[in-house]
Design brief:
Layout: E1 2-8, E2 12-19, E3 36-40
Antiparallel strand pairs: 1-2, 1-3
Length: 43
C-alpha cells in the first residue's frame, strides 16, 4: 500500500508523490499542512 499527501483539500495543491514507507516525521514543509490523503491499495 502507498499513500499520497496533499497540501489542499480535494486532492489538490502541492503533493508528496507516492509514499510507500513508514514515516514518523514528514519534514518541516508538510508539518501541520496535510489536508487530504489518497490511499493506493496494494496486492
Amino acid at each position: 500500500m502507498s499513500v499520497e499527501i496533499f497540501i489542499d483539500s480535494q486532492l489538490s495543491g502541492a503533493t508528496s508523490g507516492s509514499l510507500d514507507q513508514d514515516y514518523s516525521y514528514v519534514g518541516d514543509f508538510w508539518n501541520d499542512k496535510i489536508s487530504s490523503i489518497k490511499v493506493y491499495s496494494g496486492t
